[in-house]
């Protein structure tokens, strides 16, 4: 066994074990959690980079736990698709820590949940087994419930309870679907399922299992009208936590759904299954339009961005529908690019919103008036991220939408292309509203709230910004991570062709 084959299990085991350290060390030392999380996530990012370099150079890396046959044992798989998501998860996990170092939360229990969530997300990314996918989905959900409930006030508890109820229903739907697949094929391994499903003697079980899985992931990915947990969760979660959840939790679920479509069921099999493509297309397209319309009418920034996520993930699901209906490799590449791009964009936007809330306690669109004067670097970074979200080139949001729309046109699915165009116009509407407030509306209050300090070239003279009850100032690192996200959004926009080249071996394998 080569050392590279040990990286996939280590990516999962290390954060899960490290999650015990903040609480254990907290019995003797205060505030050790950030250091443990920083060391762990930095190591995970380095390992993910090393793994990705091998995958994109030499091909797929697999690890069989215990050496058992993949039909009955547990297999971890790192390929061109999963390596991309692993890089996103570890990079965002490291980046968000740059904010929480000063912006909070700071409790050791928070970092325990943080590492538990990171481990669960990496498990979703690497698993090659549909039952263990359920296990890692639940690890991720449990950690997310705790993080949502960590906010101040009863509203956070209510949001966490709502998420818990809907998340449990979603997990149950998915697990029932897995049970049907097991009954029909006798295996849980993804690659074994892919060989068994086309010739299964009881195809009704397969189709029923797919139906349950679609419903489960429609909740997990927050598709309309099963999206109701997401806006409340994003709104009530502490500002330092929302970027991690918004960037990664639904992203990992959307990745898992795509993995099941192309690896387990197979595009050819689903294309021959009555109404499979239509159901996925309708769910995605309706979510795209409903999410953007709901985002336009919001007055609170975090809720606006939350409904935006409903729309953006709807675009990914619609792309999967195009893949099923037309066998479009282009649409699948677009979905993969959009998953990574959206994760980066939402991490940057929610970090920006957190920084503004820490500085001015500004949480509504109207309260962002004059932000460009007081916080020029943060406002500029947020503007770049918003324009990339709309799909203005050369932002990464444009690249993902372009590939998905091109795939829809090639497959002659004109309504999907029309939905993408209409949603882009609606996205521009709420993005422009926020940009107008930041750049063209005088501040509602002449000076920021007492204790605020400008660290990015603004005009404020006060010495400190107090956030979440602490006396820590907004650091250069907090501003820098927002700038890095904006620069990354543009850089990845120029790398669209590179994305397609990296994914080509995986796409060739699953579509041919």
Task: Describe the overall structure.
- The chain is mostly helical.
- The protein has a domain at 291-449 and 473-512.
- The protein has 21 helices and two strands.
- The chain has helices spanning 7-18, 20-26, 33-58, 80-103, 108-126, 130-149, 154-185, 190-196, 203-220, 229-236, 242-265, 267-271, 276-296, 301-326, 329-360, 371-374, 376-390, 396-410, 414-440, 476-494, 496-511; strands at 61-65, 74-78.
- α14 (301-326) runs parallel beside α18 (396-410) and α14 (301-326) packs antiparallel against α19 (414-440).
- It starts with 6 loop residues before the first helix and ends with a helix.
Rounded mean pLDDT is: 84
Question: End-to-end span in angstroms?
Answer: 30 Å
Global morphology: globular
Strand order in the largest sheet: 1-2
Could you give the topology of this structure?
Blueprint: H1 7-18, H2 20-26, H3 33-58, E1 61-65, E2 74-78, H4 80-103, H5 108-126, H6 130-149, H7 154-185, H8 190-196, H9 203-220, H10 229-236, H11 242-265, H12 267-271, H13 276-296, H14 301-326, H15 329-360, H16 371-374, H17 376-390, H18 396-410, H19 414-440, H20 476-494, H21 496-511
Antiparallel strand pairs: 1-2
Helix pairs in contact: 1-3, 1-5, 2-3, 2-5, 3-4, 3-5, 4-5, 4-11, 4-15, 4-20, 5-6, 6-7, 6-11, 7-9, 7-10, 8-11, 9-11, 10-14, 11-14, 11-15, 13-14, 13-19, 14-15, 14-18, 14-19, 15-17, 15-18, 15-20, 15-21, 17-19, 17-20, 18-19, 18-20
């Amino acid at each position: 066994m080569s050392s590279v084959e040990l990286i996939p299990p280590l990516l999962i085991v290390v954060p899960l074990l490290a999650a015990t350290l903040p609480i254990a060390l907290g019995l003797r030392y205060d505030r050790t959690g950030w250091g443990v999380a920083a060391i762990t996530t930095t190591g995970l990012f380095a390992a993910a980079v090393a793994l990705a370099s091998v995958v994109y150079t030499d091909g797929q890396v697999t690890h069989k736990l215990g050496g058992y046959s993949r039909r009955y044992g547990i297999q971890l798989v790192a390929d061109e698709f999963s390596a991309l998501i692993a890089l996103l998860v570890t990079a965002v996990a490291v980046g968000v820590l740059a904010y929480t170092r000063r912006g909070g939360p700071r409790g050791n229990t928070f970092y325990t949940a943080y590492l538990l969530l990171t481990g669960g997300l990496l498990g979703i990314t690497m698993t090659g087994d549909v039952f263990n996918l359920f296990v890692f989905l639940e690890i991720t959900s449990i950690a997310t419930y705790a993080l949502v409930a960590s906010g101040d006030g009863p509203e956070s508890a209510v949001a966490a309870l709502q998420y818990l109820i809907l998340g449990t229903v979603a997990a149950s739907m998915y697990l029932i679907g897995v049970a049907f697949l097991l009954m029909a094929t006798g295996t849980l391994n993804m690659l074994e399922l892919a060989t068994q499903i086309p010739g299964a003697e009881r195809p009704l079980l397969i189709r029923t299992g797919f139906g349950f899985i679609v419903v489960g992931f429609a909740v997990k990915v927050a598709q309309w009208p099963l999206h109701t947990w997401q806006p409340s969760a994003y709104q009530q979660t502490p500002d330092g936590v929302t970027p991690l959840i918004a960037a990664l939790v639904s992203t990992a679920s959307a990745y898992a759904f795509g993995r099941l479509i192309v690896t387990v069921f197979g595009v050819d099999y689903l294309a021959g299954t009555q109404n499979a493509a239509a159901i996925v297309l309708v769910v995605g397209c309706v979510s795209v339009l409903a999410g953007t319309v709901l985002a336009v009418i919001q007055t609170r920034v975090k809720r606006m961005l939350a409904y935006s996520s409903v729309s953006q993930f709807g675009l990914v699901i619609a792309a999967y529908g195009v893949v099923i209906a037309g066998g479009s490799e282009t649409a699948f590449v677009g979905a993969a690019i959009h998953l990574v791009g959206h994760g980066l964009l939402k991490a940057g936007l929610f970090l920006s919103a957190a920084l503004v809330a820490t500085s001015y306690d500004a949480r509504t669109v109207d309260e962002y008036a004059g932000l460009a004067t007081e916080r020029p670097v943060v406002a500029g970074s947020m503007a770049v991220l918003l324009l990339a979200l709309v799909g203005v080139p050369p932002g990464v949001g444009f690249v993902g939408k372009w590939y998905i729309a091109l795939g829809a046109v090639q497959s002659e699915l004109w309504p999907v292309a029309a939905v993408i165009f209409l949603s882009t116009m609606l996205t521009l509407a709420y993005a422009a509203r926020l940009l107008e407030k930041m750049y063209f509306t005088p501040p509602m209050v002449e000076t920021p709230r007492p204790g605020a300090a400008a660290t990015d070239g603004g005009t404020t003279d006060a010495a400190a910004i107090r956030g979440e009850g602490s006396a820590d100032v907004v650091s250069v690192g907090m501003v820098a991570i927002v700038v890095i996200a904006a620069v990354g959004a543009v850089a990845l926009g120029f790398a669209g062709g590179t994305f397609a080249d990296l994914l080509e071996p995986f796409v060739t394998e699953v579509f041919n």
